[in-house]
Amino acid sequence: MFISETKVEVRYAETDQMGIVHHSNYVVWFELGRTHLIKEIGFNYAEMEAEGILSPVTDIQVSYKHPATYGEEVIVKTWVERYDGIRVAYGYEVINSKGQICVTGESSHCCVKKDTFRPISIKKQLPEWHEVYEKIKK
Amino acid sequence: MFISETKVEVRYAETDQMGIVHHSNYVVWFELGRTHLIKEIGFNYAEMEAEGILSPVTDIQVSYKHPATYGEEVIVKTWVERYDGIRVAYGYEVINSKGQICVTGESSHCCVKKDTFRPISIKKQLPEWHEVYEKIKK
Amino acid sequence: MFISETKVEVRYAETDQMGIVHHSNYVVWFELGRTHLIKEIGFNYAEMEAEGILSPVTDIQVSYKHPATYGEEVIVKTWVERYDGIRVAYGYEVINSKGQICVTGESSHCCVKKDTFRPISIKKQLPEWHEVYEKIKK
Amino acid sequence: MFISETKVEVRYAETDQMGIVHHSNYVVWFELGRTHLIKEIGFNYAEMEAEGILSPVTDIQVSYKHPATYGEEVIVKTWVERYDGIRVAYGYEVINSKGQICVTGESSHCCVKKDTFRPISIKKQLPEWHEVYEKIKK
């Protein structure tokens, strides 16, 4: 299993009046982790979109363990939790500088054509991605 | 079971380059639905916080079915899915004007003291909330 | 001068650890006010975009007077501050329920073709918009 | 004049349906640039807040020149544009990898007590900050 690590500096704008990071922001950090994983395995999500293929989220799940706060730097660990040729599920772990797990999570994705939002088979339409995802998945 | 309905007008800033609402925003809409449900059953979350009790999210889950888009008005349906005196889980459904389900979801919460983030028992510390939650839960 | 009024309920996610609305959110509320003004004068920004014309922001200015807080409902007043056939500047005032001015601001916009981001003349390309903007401007 | 440089990777969630970064996000990037400048001159904004002093924004101005897009890395240049012992104005420039100026901007700030939001004199209450700000200002 390949694990990508992304450093994220907590932004002031990401806090809320509880004094901690608002829970919706971890979903944005997951996306950042995903972008990095894709780049590290040799692909580019921006280019895939430019070629007319989108990869929308179909499901997301987050468990909050320990709040992250402004001024901290956290690490988003991202990996391919499941892959079957059509759907990809990424796993995530956000860890603070003390090694505490802030959140764990998972997001599921399919690939669709930009114009129609019709699902496509990653295995058939993106054989190079398929090969690599098979290799790096958990 | 009591179901609260909140109208949400999709904001331009909530869209992304897919041309649809970015998936992190539904988490914010759920929070809006929760605030309304609490108000409709006679309580006020802002006041509870002012009195030193917070209700952080411990888990969140979202399933994306149909994209919402700018210019639309959607309805967030919110209800108490589970309640046991300590934890509350709210259920959500976001529905567009054609009656299509855009997303479904669930969020779990506990109550903690503002100063220490130590969990408290809703049943013991907030007996009035307890009574109502018992009544309206699914 | 025509003034549009938009009610905005302050969202929890819009607060920051100062316990007030994070200053970036007023920029989002201005956009909401703008969308409403355009609708009230009989047009539809979403449709204009669908026809290939965008109206990006070229300048924005905000003065913060009094913080808005979670649980409040504020009103965003929006009007056409200046219009010359090519550029539109909207003026804004955000007012809380006590009548206090929270922020004042202004945003400037041009119109561009979606494909090229090349500026177009509103007067020539959108004569119906031109006529109304001339009428309602300050 | 001291200029701080902060790298910012454009996030997918920061784009809107125009296919470019939504204009409200530059305001968030400015804040990130400010945090870094403060750190680089030897202070820590998070600690200042922990000691009961906040530095809210009183005015903000942004001029949009060239859109930033997902997949890019931009640089936020931040400096002290003006300082008079009570108010600080920071200047900003966001530059893309081709050297194009995406936006320029300015934000003004005062310092207030956390409890009361009453303004304080930086010169008197924070003499160490005062000394450095006098040195590095434009």
Which architecture of chain A would the CATH scheme give at its second level?
Answer: Roll
Shape of chain A: elongated
What is the residue-averaged pLDDT of chain A? 97
Give the number of helices of chain A. Answer: 4
| Beta strands of chain A, count | 8
Q: State the helicity of chain A in percent bands.
A: 25-40%
User: CA-to-CA gap between the ends of chain A?
Assistant: 5 Å
- Beta-strand percentage range of chain A: 35-45%
Explain what the structure shows.
Chains A, B, C, D: InterPro entries: 4-hydroxybenzoyl-CoA_TE, HotDog_dom_sf, YbgC/YbaW. Chains A, B, C, D: It holds the Pfam family 4HBT_2. Four copies of one chain form a homotetramer. Chain A is α+β, with helices and mostly antiparallel strands. The first copy, chain A, has one domain: Hotdog Thioesterase (Thiol Ester Dehydrase, Chain A, Roll), CATH 3.10.129.10. Chain A has four helices and eight strands, in the order E-H-H-E-E-E-E-E-E-E-H-H. Chain A has helices spanning 25-40, 45-50, 122-125, 127-136; strands spanning 4-9, 53-54, 57-64, 73-83, 88-95, 101-109, 111-113, 119-120. In chain A, the strands form two sheets. A five-stranded antiparallel beta sheet of chain A has the order 1-4-5-6-3. In chain A, a hairpin with a 5-residue loop joins strand 7 (111-113) and strand 8. Chain A binds chain B through residues 17-18, 20, 23-25, 27-28, 31, 49, 54, 56-64, 67, 117, and chain B through 17-18, 20, 23-25, 27-28, 31, 49, 54, 56-64, 67, 117.
